[in-house]
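Practice problem 4.
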């Protein structure tokens, strides 16, 4: 499994964070979902022909072919934001980065004075979270409760909307910041490309003769951490847990053997499949990944990608640039800004069809 390196990068290859910047008017950052999931817009980017086409997401079946395979991330978002106070009285906001045990978690703390190991945080119901220590900007917490942490979150937690959504989560987010096929709890951020699919659209896709498969990758809050290194190669990715099962590996093998395309729904699917690829061969894998995909890395696991629009200078923007080429992606983003597409988690989407099957 690839961990933090980018294979196929030539010696002396240099990529700067600033190479992935673009101008984004703040009003294009979506603050809430549309009334209908599949009512979002879809930018078709056909790299082979160099064309861009404005579509609606509900048009996706028209762009697929019988025999294609769509691969989704079935992770389920936990209500990972908690509120409490230190025993001394100061307010504390807890954002779970990942659950590490039945009663343990790694978290970010919003608090005026950072607590030390042994410090206690009183939650809204009076239960206690004890600080075990720090790992950089993250805190290790143990929840002193009878019930497992996941149940505590379901009872007390709030959906962890991304930092660029400038409002508190409401009841609507409980449903809409979750895909309709979510089933494996563990994420603290949504695999947002999947948010555009509703049951009606999925049924139309199945009726077309398109197969569907699933990976699990529990998206962590680290996905929103800014890149601090100027040279992309110096950036160390956060860790995320994933599972690529033997059944999906066989689905992909059969799809490719029959001449179909493997199309990832979201960058998390690409990360999972590339992490499970060893020497160019996809194999079942369950465990952690720190894989960092940026231009110079050759993606071999998918032949297309459905994805939302990503933050400037972000690792996700670098991943899609590895798929389609940096200038092609940045040109498409400038086009999307001019066409007033909605950006980020609750925004619109793009279907990228690369120049050739990436498995070739």
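Answer key:
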């Amino acid at each position: 499994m690839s961990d933090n390196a980018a294979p196929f990068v030539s010696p002396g290859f240099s990529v700067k964070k600033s190479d992935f910047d673009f101008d984004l008017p703040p009003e294009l950052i979506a603050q809430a979902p549309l009334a209908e999931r599949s009512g979002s817009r879809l930018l078709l980017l056909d790299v082979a022909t160099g064309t861009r086409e404005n579509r609606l997401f509900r048009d996706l079946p028209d762009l697929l072919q019988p025999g294609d395979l769509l691969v989704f991330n079935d992770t389920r978002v936990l209500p990972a934001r908690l509120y409490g106070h230190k025993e001394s009285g100061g307010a504390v906001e807890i954002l779970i980065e990942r659950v590490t045990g039945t009663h343990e978690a790694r978290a970010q703390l919003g608090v005026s004075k950072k607590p030390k190991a042994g410090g206690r945080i009183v939650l809204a119901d009076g239960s206690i979270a004890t600080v075990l220590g720090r790992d950089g900007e993250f805190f290790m917490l143990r929840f002193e409760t009878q019930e497992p942490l996941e149940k505590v979150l379901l009872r007390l937690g709030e959906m962890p909307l991304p930092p660029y959504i400038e409002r508190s989560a409401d009841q609507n987010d409980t449903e809409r910041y979750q895909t309709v096929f979510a089933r494996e709890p563990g994420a603290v951020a949504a695999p947002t490309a999947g948010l555009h699919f509703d049951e009606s659209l999925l049924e139309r896709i199945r009726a077309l003769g398109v197969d569907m498969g699933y990976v699990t990758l529990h998206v962590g809050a680290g996905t929103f951490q800014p890149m601090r290194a100027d040279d992309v190669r110096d950036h160390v990715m956060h860790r995320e847990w994933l599972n690529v099962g033997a059944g999906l590996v066989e689905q992909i093998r059969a799809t490719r053997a029959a001449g179909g395309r493997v199309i990832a729904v979201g960058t998390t699917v690409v990360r999972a499949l590339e992490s499970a690829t060893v020497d160019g061969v996809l194999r079942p894998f369950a465990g952690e990944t720190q894989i960092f995909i940026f231009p110079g890395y050759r993606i071999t696991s998918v032949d297309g990608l459905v994805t939302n629009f990503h933050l400037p200078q972000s690792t996700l923007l670098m991943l899609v640039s590895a798929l389609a080429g940096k200038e092609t992606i940045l040109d498409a983003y400038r086009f999307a800004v001019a066409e007033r597409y909605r950006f980020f988690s609750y925004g619109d989407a793009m279907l990228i069809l690369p120049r050739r099957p990436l498995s070739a």
